[in-house]
Structure formats: structure tokens, C-alpha cells
Fold each of these.
Amino acid sequence: MATQIHQSHEVGPPIAAGLPMPQFRKITVEPLSGACGCEIGGVDLREPLQPDVLAEIMLAFEQFLVIVFRDQDLTPEQHKTFSRHFGELTELPQAPTYGGDRLMQEVRREAWEAVNVVPSFEHFHTDSPFLAQPPKAIVMRALDCPQWGGDTAFSNACLVYEHLSDGLKAVIDTLQVVYSGKEIWSRNEKLPPDKRLRLRESHDFTEDQLESIHPAVRVHPETGRRSLFATSAYFQRFVGWSEEESRALLTYLQGLAQHLHYHCRVKWRKNTLIVWDNRFTLHRGVHDFKNERRHLIRTTVIGERPLGVADLTAR
């Protein structure tokens, strides 16, 4: 009689956003995809948050990089109060302000307007990488949105990096990127009026504050996880590389971020609020709608100076 051999197949904890799934007891957490993003329930952001609830929200933010809350009818002050849990708020030189408040920005496209009036960057990007301390997080809420379309998509830049070959990682670990926001206004003025982006008309930033050099691979200051930080928005070149060489490598890296298995996508509804980690994700608006209004308001949380791989070895 044949002897049956039973093999043991051990299975670890479920993986979400590339990491083991934590346990949440004070909030509900529903992942949006296997790559990034989750929807959080059981929280009213108009009310003060208990420490244990806030701790779980922050854990979800660190794990999923994109967190979504539905039905949050906040005043601008409540919006800013919640945003400050993630850090200090900052204005941006290029983003139009909302209601005259320098600490709130808006992304708006009227029903009769062309796609161009919103600086949507029809590719995945991070916001304002030209700043010395690019934003840590964006906290955005929908006032008006299309019935269909107008979603925001996100790509997990940690997963993009982690799936690279060891050889390519060794190359880009050493690279630095020159980012510049100096010319966005002059380029905009050269376009026909109906093709121009909606930009903030004036700001108090100096020319030196509109250009920075950052590592192409960014390291999470708490977890040490590495992420691709090379994005085409405001990109000039890799330090020590020609513009042609730089664009060739950037095009390849940017193409990887388009792969669906790195993505989640959020459908906006009125009073939906999203917080995303601008350091370790790429995002883009999906302008697949016409004849409807899309009006989003946001705060921007200032980040730390980006840490590169060299900073780890220097510690």
C-alpha cells in the first residue's frame, strides 16, 4: 500500500501594498487594490480624534500610502485641523489658492472649460519636487465632481523600485535629480489663452526656492523603505548626465509606473476626502469627462528634505 506523504505549505500573513497587513481595531480598513490605497470607515473628521483612532489612521497612511474617507462635510477650518495631524501646512507657488486662504489650494475645471485649464499632468507625477522640502502629504476633498469619470489614480513608487533588477537599483541609488519650477509661468504665457494652465498669478517664493537637487531614490525616514523619486514633472536632468541620456532613463522608469499592478484608483463623490503620501506615490487626474464641473480643494503638508541611499550609509 502506497504511503501518502503530506507536505506542509506554510502561508504567511496577507500582503497589502507590498507589506504584511496590520490589524485595525478602532477603524475599518478596506484595501482598494493589492498595490496601494484603502478606504477608512467609522471616523467623523469633524470631531476631535481619540489618540488610538488617530494612531490607526496614521498606521493605515504608512501602510497604504493613500487613505480615503467618505461623506466628510468639513468646513475649511476643520479640513486644516485634520490636515495638521500629518504635519505643518504650507502654500505652493504654482497652485491657485481657495477662498483667499494661502494654506488651501483648489483644482477646478468648469463644465465649459477645456482639459488644459487644470494642471493635471497627463502622466503620473509627484507634487512640487522642485521645493527643498517637497510635500509630505496632500489632503484633498471634493466639492463638486462628475457623475462618471474624473477619478484620481495612484501608483506605488515603492513597489516600482522594489521590482527593479539589482543592477538598475545600483545605478539609480547613486543618482540625483535636478528639479526646477522656475519656467512654468513663462512657458504658460507663451501658450494660446485657451491652452494655458490655471496657475497662481503671484507668490513670495524666491528663484532659489524654485529649484532643488534630490536623490532619484528616496528612503522612508521611519521605515527605511526605498522608493523611486524620479518623475517627469519639473524634471531637468540627472546630475552628471546629458539631457538626452536623462530623458531616456526617465522615460523607461516613468513607463514602469504605468503598470496596473502598482495602481489604485479613487472615484470621487461629494465630500470624499483623500490623503496621499506625496513622497512615495505618483498620482494623476483622469480627465475622461466633459460638460461637468470638477472642483477639489486641498491642503499641502510640508515634508522633510528627501533622504537618499547615501544618507543611510552616512548615519
Amino acid sequence: MTETTQALSPTPPQPRPTHLRTLTYHGLAPGPRLLVLGAVHGNEVCGAKAIAQLVHDLDSGALRITRGTLTLVPVTNPLAYQLGQRTGDRNLNRNMAPSAIPQDFEDSVANVLCPLLDAHDALLDLHSFHTGGAPFVMIGPQNNTGPLEPFAHADLEMQLALHTGPHRIVEGWLDTYARGIQKRLARSGPEGSRAQALVTNPNYGVGTTEYMRSRGGYGVTLECGQHDDPLAVGVARHAILQTLALLGLTALPLVAEPPHREILRLVDVTDRDHAGDTFSRAWRSFDPVHAGDVIGTRHTRELVKAPTDGFIVFPNPRAEVGQEWFYFAQRRQ
């Protein structure tokens, strides 16, 4: 008896997504307009899962929107989500702006997403992070009329941040990025490739919340925990429900603000210059460091040290060359 085997053909690649799925619920009484985003980065799925739970509750009648408007985007970057990675063609949460001539998938998404942001008053953007650490929420600047990020809703944004759940609040994102861009330009010189042009563009630090503020709204980014932490979905769900309660879109009870809060300010970002750049240990977000502590070693054996006492934020040992390796934060004075 002979036995024949047939070689398995490789699985054909999935076609690139061609649409963005959104769900909108209109209360029958007027009220605020809230936008909730999940999976802006494709490997950060806790928000998508929490939104799926919420849709089930809304469609079953277990939860009701009584006033205002709620728009949900479970998967904001469907290409990155399909690939199971942070980005599709590029990072959607950078260089956020409409494009007259889209050059990549994320440009096309932004052309749909930016009008959505324009049409809402408040934004809750649900993320997770690479290494371990406790959840935290990111806010924008204090009220100001300066050229970088003028803003007039700091009180509303702080109130939203305090009701998402975490006690730790982080600020200073766009200021830090502006300084980071200047360092990149000093290292790289005139732009060459599109990738280099993107990461050295002054608009590089503008993501969903920064764009929202530039259009007269306000919003927070909630980092719900490590990517694979099963508790992160619950953190995201709690934040959505409490935001609905805070804005009065539902009749849910509002949980009190955390009795203690810690506000940290990002002050610097350090890029990974070479694949041989390595951390001195397995850092987690908000690990404290003292001035002079060794954070990592460049491939040239140059030591990267903490400039002052502070905290490591968003350490990424697998950061791409020329991309953010870690951030440095200090307590707000």
C-alpha cells in the first residue's frame, strides 16, 4: 500500500482592510458627544475587547444611552490589528492630520478619523504598553495660548482623567516630543526617506488627543496595563462606563475620584540609535531612578545615565532604530 502526501500550499495573505467600523448611539435628549477608540495600535487589544462588551450591553438593553452621542471605534487601525502588530505602514498615533494625497494606509485612516474627532467634544483613547507596570492616564497641557498646544479645557480634562480609574497621571507629551524632534534632526540632518521625514516632522508628536485639542475638544489617553494583562480589559471597561457616567450619557453611578493622585511630567525622550543598544535591566514603566543610575548601554559602550532623580516611562527593549527607546519623567513641582 502506498501513501501519498500533498504539500500544503502557503496561506494566501489577507487583503488589506478597506473600511473603518464605527458604531454610534444617539440619546434622545441633547448632551455631550463622546468618542471612544480602541486598537489605535494593532497589538493593544484591551480597548477593542472592552468596546465589544459595551456594544453587547447596549444592544441587549443592559446599558442605555439617554442623552448625547456615543461613538465607538473598536479597531481604529484595522491593518495593524490584522497583522497583530503595533503599526501597519506607520504609526497611526503620530503625524495625525488629514492628507490630501494619502501615501500609506494610516493616512487613509486619518482622513476618516480626523472628521470623527472634529465632530465630538470629548475623547477616550484606550491603549496598553509593552513592559509591565500599573495603568496610568495621560493628559495634555495646562490652559495656555502658546504656539505649541494652546488649550482651554484643562479642568474638564483633569476631571475626566481622575474618573478613568488610575491614580497616576502623566503630562508633558507634546513638549517632550518637540525636544525629541530637535535631537533627531541634529543627529540625522536633512530628511531622506519618508520614514525619516515622518519621525523628524514637527507634527510627529500629534496623535489622537493632540489633534482633538487642536480642534477645540479635549481627551485623555488611558494606558490600561501591559498588552497581555487580562486585567487590562476590565480597566478599559471601567473607564468607559465612568466616562459615560461623568458626561451624563447614562444613568450609571459615578465612582468618587481616587483619594490620592500622583502627577508626573515627561521631560525627555531617548531614541534607540542602534540595534545593539541595550537596557541595563528589564525596566518597567515608572521604575524610579536616581541621578547617575545606568539605564542602558549604547552599542559604542557609552553608558546612558539618568540625568536626575526621576522615573522610566514606556521602556521598549525592542524599539526600532531611530524610534523612542524610553521616556524620562519627574514629579510635577
